[in-house]
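[Amino acid chain]
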Amino acid sequence: MIDRFILKIQRLLVHYRYCRKFKEFGAKSSLVSPLRVFGPENIVIGNNVSIHHKCWLQAIPLTGGRCSLQIGDGTTIGDYNHIIATGNIIIENNVLTANGVYISDNLHEYEDINTPIKLQPIKQLKNVLIGEGCWIGEHVSIIGASIGRHSVIGANSVVTHDVPDYCVAVGIPAKVIKKYDFNLNQWIKV
């Protein structure tokens, strides 16, 4: 009983601290504290979105230009997710991410071997789009790639190339292992 009360108080404090700063914050959406948010003025949260414990949301135009992070209606973001946009990341409606997911449209450059990597510039990659109804497994990294609608990314995968609609992809780097066949109405191995 007390745990529920404390959780409700934490959610109210997070709501008061952050929600009014977002570009948009939808009805019946919730954020669980503690939470790290950088660039809330560039973040759009849809309706009925749930962002769980110890997530990091960042939308800062470190590579110049415009920056946007959009999380669609009905999406659930698991614990310890990091979503880092320097360009454009869109997570469409009803996406489910497990715990420990990393999503980014950028990375550190490392070309100059005489300069520490942390002192080198940020390299902008492709925009990231995670299609409607996707399931992103535990500890997945998505870096400068898009995921098609209703696709599944298996746990511990690293996605660096686009994954089509209605596919299952696993591995490092992630490769498609199944596709949904609409003629047979079933998932088939690739």
